[in-house]
């Protein structure tokens, strides 16, 4: 699939924020749909997408902080 190829080609520092942004959009859509229509299944999907975005954010933050800074290597 084309999306699989794109995600493999993109570097980590572009791919992860993109995954976070898409997950947050889906979570917002699901929770909005739950607020307007109801039914707990929509809220559950929203919470799952939100949890995925939060998990990916913490992984990205840990990786970002573990990189050595160019200014400190003197």
Portion of residues within helices? over 70%
Number of helices: 3
Q: Report the β-strand fraction as a percent range.
A: under 5%
Shape: elongated
Mean pLDDT: 86
Q: What ranges have pLDDT less than 50 throughout 5 or more consecutive residues?
A: none
Structural class: mainly alpha
Order of helices and strands: HHH
The separation of the N and C termini measures: 45 Å
The largest sheet, given as strand count, sense and whether it forms a barrel, is:
none
- The overall strand count is 0
The rounded Rg comes to 16 Å
Features:
single chain; 74 residues; mainly alpha; 82% helix
Compile the SSE list and pairings.
Layout (H helix, E strand, L loop, with lengths): L1 H8 L2 H26 L2 H27 L8
Helix pairs in contact: 2-3
